[in-house]
Amino acid sequence: MAAMELQQLVDRIAAEVTPGGTPAGYIPALARIDPHAFGLAVATLDGEVFRAGEHSRPFSIQSISKAFTLALALAENDDVWTRVGREPSGSPFNSLVQLETEQGIPRNPFINAGAVVVTDHLGLGAADRLLGFLRQESGNPALDVDPEVAKSELDHSDRNRALAHFMASYGNMRNPVDVVVNEYVRQCSIAMSCTDLAKATLFLARHGVRNDGTRLLGVSGAKRVNAVMLTCGTYDAAGQFAYRVGLPGKSGVGGGIIAVVPGKCAICVWSPGLDVRGNSVAGVDALDRFTTLTGWSVF
Amino acid sequence: MAAMELQQLVDRIAAEVTPGGTPAGYIPALARIDPHAFGLAVATLDGEVFRAGEHSRPFSIQSISKAFTLALALAENDDVWTRVGREPSGSPFNSLVQLETEQGIPRNPFINAGAVVVTDHLGLGAADRLLGFLRQESGNPALDVDPEVAKSELDHSDRNRALAHFMASYGNMRNPVDVVVNEYVRQCSIAMSCTDLAKATLFLARHGVRNDGTRLLGVSGAKRVNAVMLTCGTYDAAGQFAYRVGLPGKSGVGGGIIAVVPGKCAICVWSPGLDVRGNSVAGVDALDRFTTLTGWSVF
Amino acid sequence: MAAMELQQLVDRIAAEVTPGGTPAGYIPALARIDPHAFGLAVATLDGEVFRAGEHSRPFSIQSISKAFTLALALAENDDVWTRVGREPSGSPFNSLVQLETEQGIPRNPFINAGAVVVTDHLGLGAADRLLGFLRQESGNPALDVDPEVAKSELDHSDRNRALAHFMASYGNMRNPVDVVVNEYVRQCSIAMSCTDLAKATLFLARHGVRNDGTRLLGVSGAKRVNAVMLTCGTYDAAGQFAYRVGLPGKSGVGGGIIAVVPGKCAICVWSPGLDVRGNSVAGVDALDRFTTLTGWSVF
Amino acid sequence: MAAMELQQLVDRIAAEVTPGGTPAGYIPALARIDPHAFGLAVATLDGEVFRAGEHSRPFSIQSISKAFTLALALAENDDVWTRVGREPSGSPFNSLVQLETEQGIPRNPFINAGAVVVTDHLGLGAADRLLGFLRQESGNPALDVDPEVAKSELDHSDRNRALAHFMASYGNMRNPVDVVVNEYVRQCSIAMSCTDLAKATLFLARHGVRNDGTRLLGVSGAKRVNAVMLTCGTYDAAGQFAYRVGLPGKSGVGGGIIAVVPGKCAICVWSPGLDVRGNSVAGVDALDRFTTLTGWSVF
User: Fold this and answer.
1) Chain B interface mutation, best of C158, C172, C180, highest count of B Cβ atoms under 10 Å
2) How far apart are CA C26 and CA C153, in angstroms?
3) Domain boundary assignment for chain D
4) What is the H or E stretch that residue B65 is in?
5) Mean pLDDT over all residues of chain C?
6) Which of this chain's residues are annotated to bind substrate (chains A, B, C, D) (predicted)?
7) pLDDT tens by residue, A206-228
């Protein structure tokens, strides 16, 4: 597909989608954002970025951070898979049931308990390492944690603390819970734009190769992150997302979604209005249109 | 990839895999099969079939039948998705919990409860319709239910009857439980070879088009079956299968696995030795090698 | 307490309670009964019966039958406690979870799954044995199953069939599910009056001795039935009942409740209006008043 | 029963029971105690105490503290029942399931989550208030927290912190988790002898009246504590305890059990060897013999 065509496509999608749904309400800083905002960016392997809407407006990446921290953890020698599984969870209704049944081992790195384990695996300084990685891949050295969001999340962190202490009671926590929750909250509170995120996601489309040509992950590691994204990346709507979009993707309650077309491009779409399962309404719609129009679906 | 190469590849895989694991033990007829048997068949869109090992030896298709009954149900006007979900389940440990939490609506068509609903949706004669479809697609009019396996399964059908009555108590069963369980058991007890199954699966690689050029499903319907296979097709190892194989697939406790490379081919591999999650050890290994050697993975 | 006083007390209670709540709705035959009906009978060890209200009007005993079938099963040599537990369940929300976690062994004989096991233990003819026992103890040879209620229950027996098949899948069912469910339904559908039930319950106040002076149970067996009634006899309100009434009791969704004052008397109260947990509103109130006025509480 | 007889009875029980089982292993300070130690004390309403074995040796009261903190909380005007239920739980296997299903409201005050809520209800200084009460009722001003046990428990408090944060996420925690867990741990770590505990429990046998003749609880409040003890006081063996002992009782993993004969006496027995459900083997046996020999059972 030619560059010209991709830009037209991106513009067409931005023109056609109708933002809807409701922004996440549990944090004031997220709740007051206009639900009709919309941004889209597609970064291709040859270095171009096609953009539409509010593509350069930063938003809270929230759970999208989980895809990156998983990649960083997999880049270490130390095996994270002994501490967290790789299977879909059937969340949310059984999150704690599962954790109890499976003795403190979360089902996958994208449910909160699993992401907390991954953060603990990265240890003290996890959020700063993530920031460093995202700045370099996006080429945007100004990326940072949104302090207001971070504070608000810390004030509402009882559920995550419960999960962390619960896993600690099974011996699956290396650092103090306070430290881990703090790193976790800072990661989720990073603010990025669609353009930033599309660029930062490109290493997954490049089978693990970073912006500067070095490898973060081997081909197998990148495939693993993509597989986890496809089966577990959109909360309890992974089956529906696999059908409608048919690409590995990871969403966040800030309204952003990243998606990967292996060997071709990385996409980031943002619109704060969420459906009942926590995925951006306009975001899923835009990705659905994108794969329908390009034919770049997995199936 | 040329035909010559595919045959070499199939031969190489058959030579390299080491069958292992244990046959399913809950039914005598399945338990006494040699766990080291192995067969492989790859059917391409242009009509060729590449084979290795015991590719023409019939085995019990068991849960592989679920992929076909889902396709048959989707081919009807009547919407089956109001009665069964499309999300991974995190089975097995919470199967009944979920059914209770979600008021008698199974999570997806590939857990037993979901397949029972799909069978009920097809109604009386479901097994005969499935047989008719499989005979026509495979070109093998001799395909039939293995009466010994069917009898053995009927004698061990209490769990499935429990699921069916439980769903009936929520109003999610149209036919008498006896009728539905009988149809369900007959479907699972059909005996087919790798060659039969690879051919019969081709309609999913053809985006819904049958052997005779007519459509069973639209493109969207075929994509749906593939998406459900990728996210839910291998019991509680879908994440691991997505990573190792990276293709839509459906396994059965008879040791068979079918897989689809959309637009290219359908594969069936068989070896009765199972891992702890109920998937064929040599079958997963063979598919892993196949996608590694061909590069025909989704990611 | 003198006979005169007991009659005054019974009259006073009947005058003071205000029937309320809603009759059980899942069976038409039960749903259309006047929720304000009220009856009370107290049978003492010396053979007197003190009555008030509609004490001689038959109603559907429903789960009250579970106390009697447990007693009949304990009277056999064959040990029923290997097949059913004796602990409170925290029902209803986890009934099936527990059954799965505890491998087909119900928590106690008063949840449906447990009562089905007890019925299976008694085997074919269980309902007739129960009828025979109740006729003899109550001195009312006309007692019988209400055929309309029995039919209605059979038509709504999917949940109980699910439980029975589920336990059968764990090997905890001796007779065919059809047979057991039929016996179970007939037991629940027996119609008795407060007077009938108070008399029939006297053997528990007599520490196991029947009307004719023979023993159904040893002292230890009678104590066991009373202990199960106190901890598990009123669905998920056993703690509340223990506090308000402080006596071993067993309720049914037909609106009846039996209670035992060991060494003194047996009580039956009836009023069809139920609270959210399935216990008769006026029934619990009347028993609360009875123990408050007599001081005959356990605590 | 005369004083002479009670002393003989107590001596006979001490001579006949055979301590067994295994001390609680999760805290070093508890694990290294001789499992064969045994003590018994019966305090009657007229002020006498009958003793046998190591009746004056202090042990860790652990969960026995829950009966006293419940009584202290009920003595306040502020209603604790809006924050914790009164029904048996079917613990342990579903503790967290229940908490999630019931939106952060623990089932009863004797499971850990419920006791944490009661402690939070008493607030900062809860442990000191408990100590003050126990010193006064036992007449032993030297009672105190065992600092070694308290430290060990604090080091293993992740599960309780998880429960507290989980309830906080539902809004059911007034004080900071750190404060509440600290108070809770100190309460559990109080060391008392059988004689101390039997005396301190007398107010429940006196229907709420303290040592000095003032009331801690009304008759109704004392009945409530007794009812909760009977239905929930011995972990997941309340049904079995109700049958064998037939008295309101509360056990702790330190090996102690208190029991109440309303209107007659309070009993404390201690032996550190536990059965699989966490109750003292010799303790339950001794209480079983006590009620059998005296006939002072509820049933």
Assistant:
1) C158
2) 9
3) 3-294
4) helix B65-74
5) 93
6) 63, 112, 153, 160, 184, 235, 253
7) 999 999 999 999 998 999 999 99
What residues in C contact B168, CB-CB < 8 Å? 158, 162
> Alpha-carbon distance D84 to D107, whole Å?
6
Superfamily of structural domain C3-294: DD-peptidase/beta-lactamase superfamily (3.40.710.10)
Higher pLDDT, B30 or A72: A72
Within a 13 Å sphere around the CA of B38, how many CA atoms are in the beta-carbon half?
21
Q: Which of C17, C253, C260, C269 is catalytic?
A: C253
Q: Bridge-partner residues for D258, per DSSP?
A: D250, D268
Q: Is D230 on the interface with C (CB under 8 A)?
A: yes
Question: ipTM of this model?
Answer: 0.91
The C-alpha torsion from C57 through C59 and C63 to C65, rounded to 10°, is: 60
Residue B89 falls in the annotated catalytic set: no
Asked if the C-beta of D177 comes within 8 angstroms of chain A's C-beta atoms, the answer is: yes
B92 has a chain A CB within 8 A of its CB: no
What is the pTM for the complete model shown?
A: 0.92
Q: D168: which chain A residues are within 8 Å (Cβ-Cβ)?
A: 158, 162
For tokens 């099974």, what's the residue?
Answer: A170
DSSP C142: T
Three-state secondary structure call for residue B37:
coil
In chain A, beta strands by DSSP E: 39-44, 49-53, 59-60, 144-145, 190-192, 249-251, 256-261, 265-270
Burial classification of residue B79, based on how many CB atoms lie within 10 Å of its CB (0-12 exposed, 13-18 middle, 19 or more buried): exposed
Q: Which residues contact D74 (CB under 8 A, 6 or more apart)?
A: D80, D217, D221, D224, D225
Give the model confidence (pLDDT) of A86-102 as tens digits.
998 875 544 677 787 78
B264 catalytic? Reply is no
Strands in B144-145's sheet, in edge-to-edge order, are: B59-60, B190-192, B144-145
Q: Say if residue C19 is preceded by a cis peptide, omega within 30 of 0.
A: no
> Can you give the length of chain D in residues?
299
Q: Does D88 touch chain C (CB under 8 A)?
A: yes
Cα dihedral C22, C27, C29, C30 sign: negative
